[in-house]
Automatic annotation (TrEMBL):
Gene Ontology cellular-component terms listed: ATP-binding cassette (ABC) transporter complex, substrate-binding subunit-containing
The entry's keywords: Signal, Transport
UniProt record similarity statement: Belongs to the bacterial solute-binding protein 1 family.
The protein's name in its UniProt record: Sugar ABC transporter substrate-binding protein
GO term, biological process aspect, one: maltose transport
Species: Micromonospora maris
Metal-binding is among the record's keywords: no
UniProt-listed InterPro entries: SBP
């Protein structure tokens, strides 16, 4: 059963009830009720936060405390759920109609999938979308499925080249590399001049996309309903990543917790450059041995032969369709607060995250934030991902492929052929090869 939150509103403006539509039936909105004091709203909500619990979690807890200043009788049960586990954990709980959170911080690709399964409330006509034009178009688009909107954007991002300014300066490099060839040369120079590794390439599917996009590749063609992940362009992109490691220009990635190893080495100034996103800015800038925010450089990912660009990423707030009817007003109030321009500006100032509202960029704390300015340039070069229900299932096979190519030394084209076969068998069986 797919439910709709059409017509629901925050209690501060108007308290509305929901009419649940049966599958295949028409969605109906209830009539408005008299305005009420926010303090009279009483509910207990569970929120699954999939952000980093040490790096980002404390800022979200601060926002909950701010929310409770206006809504003192809405208790938020904050639960930190590991990002890598949350997608399947939510699906399992939602299917069982037990144990799912009332509100979820969902990765952008998860929303169409969850909506297609009937696990989310549609928000069309609700107070949450009354100012939809204030949201940036690309982040908002990730919340749409089958003509309806099932979430609101929390944060937008993309992958960037993050670098240690001091190490590049010591190596005589005056500007960050703009191509993969320049990055390879710069990495070797840094290693020879400073003793630090030049670059660390994380062997994970999402982090391979800038290499694949750089040669003009992609994963699928939704319009043609075709699997193109094993294209020659993608194989060429992976060969560039592999060559960085094979040549010694890049550090050999760890077979266990490569991401954690990458971040530790970067924070300790043992690696000069990494590919990563704004969610790590606070982690890096607060590291005792890094040298603060002034030592952190941010630039668009280097270009291949076709283009430069990382994947469009980010997270959205969504509401579980199995939530008890009497909690809807409180859930909408909470999401509206968390997705507000004020809350987004707070997170931007605290963590360097990029807002998804146009109005948030007019706040001085955001407008004058050098990290935000740097990542805006990164986002302008970002490559859009297909917002189809299956998009959230693309990265398991890609992760395995990245390990095979960068750690186990498998041929890139052969590894990609394996991904294409898995997509056909398990992810998009209706697509052609």
């Amino acid at each position: 059963m797919r439910r709709t939150a059409r017509g629901i509103a925050v209690l501060a403006s108007a308290s509305l009830a929901l009419t649940v539509a049966a599958c295949g039936g028409e969605d109906k909105a209830a009539e408005e009720q008299p305005k009420a004091d926010p303090a009279s709203l009483t509910a207990e909500l569970t929120w699954w936060d999939t952000s980093d619990p040490q790096n980002e979690g404390p800022a979200f807890k601060e926002l909950i405390a701010k929310f409770n200043q206006t809504y003192p009788n809405v208790k938020i049960n904050y639960q930190s759920v590991p990002f890598g586990e949350a997608q399947n954990k939510f699906k399992t709980a939602a299917q069982a109609k037990s144990g799912a959170p009332d509100i979820l911080r969902a990765e952008v690709a998860w929303v169409p999938e969850f909506a297609s399964l009937g696990y989310l409330y549609a928000l069309d006509g609700s107070e949450l979308l009354s100012d939809a034009s204030d949201f940036l178009a690309t982040p908002l688009a990730s919340n749409k499925y089958d003509g309806k909107t099932y979430g609101v954007p929390q944060v937008t991002d993309s992958l960037a080249l993050m670098y240690n300014k001091e190490l590049l300066t010591k190596a005589g490099i005056s500007a960050p590399p703009k191509t993969w060839a320049e990055l390879k040369s710069a990495s070797q120079t840094i290693k020879d001049s400073t003793g630090a590794e030049g670059v660390y390439v994380n062997p994970a599917g999402y982090f391979m996309l800038p290499f694949m996009y750089g040669e003009g590749g992609d994963l699928v063609d939704p319009e043609a309903k075709k699997i193109i992940v094993n294209s020659e362009q993608n194989a060429a992109g992976l060969a560039i990543a592999k060559d960085l490691i094979d040549s010694g220009a890049a550090a050999k990635p760890s077979a266990n917790d490569a991401y954690g190893t990458m971040m530790t080495l970067f924070k300790e100034q043992k690696v000069a450059m990494i590919i990563n996103g704004p969610w790590e800015v606070n982690n890096v800038s607060s590291a005792p041995d890094f040298g603060g925010l002034e030592n952190l450089g941010i630039a668009p990912v280097p270009a291949g032969s076709a283009r430069a660009g990382g994947p469009v990423g980010g997270h959205n707030y969504v509401i579980w369709s199995g939530m008890p009817q009497e909690k809807i007003d409180a859930a909408v109030a909470f999401v509206k607060f968390m997705a507000s321009a004020e809350s987004q500006a707070f997170l931007s100032e605290k963590l360097g995250l990029l807002p998804t509202r146009t109005s948030a960029y007019q706040v001085d704390a955001v407008k004058n934030n050098p990290v935000v300015a740097a990542f805006q340039a990164v986002n302008e070069a970002a490559v859009g991902r297909p917002w189809i229900p299956e998009a959230g299932q693309f990265f398991g096979p890609l992760d395995q492929m990245a390990t095979e190519v960068l750690i186990q030394n498998k041929d890139p084209k052969a590894a990609l052929d394996g991904v294409a076969k898995k997509y056909k068998a398990e992810v998009v069986p209706g697509y052609g090869l």
